[in-house]
Write a structure and sequence with these properties.
Keywords: Cytoplasm, RNA-binding. By secondary structure, the protein is α+β, with helices and mostly antiparallel strands. The strands form 2 sheets. The chain has a 7-stranded antiparallel sheet. A two-stranded antiparallel sheet has the order 3-6.
Length: 154
């Protein structure tokens, strides 16, 4: 994510379940009440994913809560939303997803100069032993940090 952007939401589960090989920035097609809801933090990226159809990229299962004061202008919270990327980028991603078995996962949602951007990751799934290794590595680092903190006290 670039500097100066305000993070709206992050998909922490994606980093746990996938190896992120590459990340790209994309715009997203929203209506006004959805943007207002995003400003209040009403979004969930947990089970969302992207797919490419007819040369266009869409995000599926991204839940944006209805805006409280939106009345008739509110849309379906789980509707499919179109992502805005250059055609060459989309075709490059399409080739990698089809040939190498990668998945496209939204990693974060943020504001960049008053526009909403999505960080899309080209991800490869982790196996159970990979997840265990990550947890063991994180625990070992936590223990080392604790030991260094104890040692620096004296």
């Amino acid at each position: 994510m670039p500097q100066g952007g305000k993070i709206i939401a992050q998909n922490r589960k994606a980093r746990h379940d996938y190896f992120v090989e590459e990340s790209l920035e994309a715009g997203i097609e929203l209506v006004g009440t959805e943007v207002k809801s995003l400003r209040q933090g009403g979004v969930n990226l947990k089970d969302s994913f992207c797919y490419i159809e007819d040369g266009e990229i869409f995000v599926h299962n991204m839940h944006i809560s209805p805006y409280e004061k939106g009345n008739i202008f509110n849309r379906d919270p789980l509707r499919v939303r179109k992502l805005l990327m250059h055609k060459k980028e989309i075709m490059k991603l399409f080739d990698q997803v089809k040939q190498q078995g990668y998945s496209l996962i939204p990693l974060s949602l943020y504001f960049k100069n008053s526009r909403v951007k999505v960080e899309v990751g080209l991800c490869r799934g982790k196996k159970l032993y990979d997840k265990r290794a990550d947890i063991a590595r994180r625990d070992a680092k936590r223990e080392m940090d604790r030991a260094m903190k104890e040692r620096s006290r004296y």
